[in-house]
Protein 1
Amino acid sequence: MNTATQHIASTDARARAAAVGVGLWVFIGVASTLFALFLLAYVMRLSGSDGAAIALPWQLWLSTALLTAGSVLLQRAHTSRSSARTLLLAGGACAIAFLAAQGWAWQTLQAADVRLASHPAASFFYLLTALHGLHVAGGLAAWEVTLQAVSRQTGPGPVDWRVALCARYWHFLLVVWVLLFAAFSWITPDLARVICGVAA
């Protein structure tokens, strides 16, 4: 491949990376709006006369630790080219373990007779954690594509942007999860009524 061809290929790769990066930011904006609207609906519903918080299972702390570890590992994969594949594998394993921990948390709630239709807080808990889980599963599909690209790579550079975007998406997933966990942990019916301006 001559110098001119290499320059064209490099320019095309940069243009593609920029386009995909913009697309990811748009997706993150849309998904953030979706989660914000659901959280607002949760607060409004919790402010009702039948609003009641649920006792959260301890597995959610495990989920938080796993998603945090995955985010850190993917960021390191972006900055450490020599061990990018190993770090990507570890980050993906954390994401899969996160989904397993979420399933375990659901089982714990089911065993405590906290079901989807038990009351509004339970319904929103299952809905929002399932929605987040779907975003994690979608991220794993992109992670698989990125892992394959890194595995085929013979030198530095060509797929670095894929790893960077994968890490960015994982950071987004972590931020959303922390906000969901905080909302479920700290927003009580009384606080929800204050936020919504509803008389107790």
Protein 2
Amino acid sequence: MSFQYPEKHEKSAYIQLLILCGLALTGLMIFSLIGLVILYAMYGQAVLIDPIALASGDPKYLSGLKIFQILSSVGLFLAPPLLLPLIEGKKIKNFYDFKKTQPSLTALLILIMIFSMPFMEWTALWNQKMHFPEFLKPLEVWMKAKEAEAMRMTIVLLTVNGIGDFLVNLFMIALLPAVAEELMFRGGVQRSFNRMFGNPHVAIWLSAFIFSAIHMQFYGFLPRILLGAAFGYIYVWSGSLWYAMLAHFLNNGFAVGMAWYLQSKNLPLSGVEQTFHFQWYGYAISLAITTLFLWKFKQNTNYGKQLG
């Protein structure tokens, strides 16, 4: 079975991608402007003159930083894919396939995310050991600087001082990206690529590549592209974007929960992405079990049953 989308009365896939890009740029500018107005109201012109202070880790700027981060995500990732079906004159739930979830598939998805964690940690560790030849050293230095900057920002955002901060982080880092990024990359970008090429595998991996690259964290590129591809296949097999959103939420929510736990134990937040420590066979078992559950997930969907 080929995972095809209805094309009747729709603009071409190329036009849809252009519309998505245009909406994303416009949304980012509009919501960033709204964010700057809010920051000005909160802190005065000082934060506009020295925007680096916002990400300095100073507790007084933390609320403003989180507000700006939320607004940026809404403008860049959430608003564009919500507007696209409206432009096409279609209902959002039909355009992106929000079919009702099944308890058995949901349970399998949770098991997939749990058992994949050790293997994903191994890919992250392997990715972090990446080195470039001498003539590409300037690029490596730049990438490491961007990675350090992203890590510093992540630690600032993950800082919590109570249950209120934890709930805000759960929304900002887990729920909002799960909904917005899956709508954008699996719902919007992957859908358009599939219409272009008529091949779900090409659509999935191209979308996963863009999903990983746009985060600008090069030493986490491999695990992120694998996650993006997994979300893409889950979407294709199930025919429902709910499962991809749930998987994304579980992945990010675990990091938020671990950050809260580490802080409660006065442990450094730098350990939030290095939770597991296994021998090589532990990672191999994780990969084997994850693959088994992914296969089982596929077999229990209508997609898998029709292929079988």
Protein 3
Amino acid sequence: MINMKLQKLLYWVALIAITVSAAGCRKGLEKTTLLPGYGAGAPGGKDSSTPLDPNAIAIKEGGIPVSERIGPDWKPSAEQPFTRETVYFEFDKSSIKQGETSKLDRIASEMKQKYRGKGLRVEGHCDERGTEEYNRSLGDKRAHSIREYLARAGVDPQMIDVVSFGEDRPAVSGHSEAAYAKNRRGEFVLLDPPR
């Protein structure tokens, strides 16, 4: 008798779980950032389901074309002077906060004076909230925002490479706002040219 009741209870719980998961969330996403090259405002036409060339987007929006100079043969330098210059971002944003610009000004100054001929990799990161694809895109936007700032500060844009790790490499473990704030960041790796 108890076994039969337990089976009925499990059946109904499973049925409700399947129904809820199939229905999804009716509210939808709020305050989302469009993926680069997608959406109603995407340059190049009405078809928003096809991605565009990132270089075409950057140029159309007044940005700096992506570097083709730095390749896989550029290796991290033994000297890493910018490990303490991590730039932090607000939730779901890729714009650089006013309080973070002094870090970028120091990096730009050092790259122009002390590290001429070396490359700089800008790594974009996100907290764990959002899909993997969305976070990868947001990390890319953050890295490109930093690259744009450094290029406008006089660093040769061909010497700046960008990569997005999305949520894959958290700086801090945890599911609190404090942990999330530390994971929404841009980091820097000084690169040596191939020999």
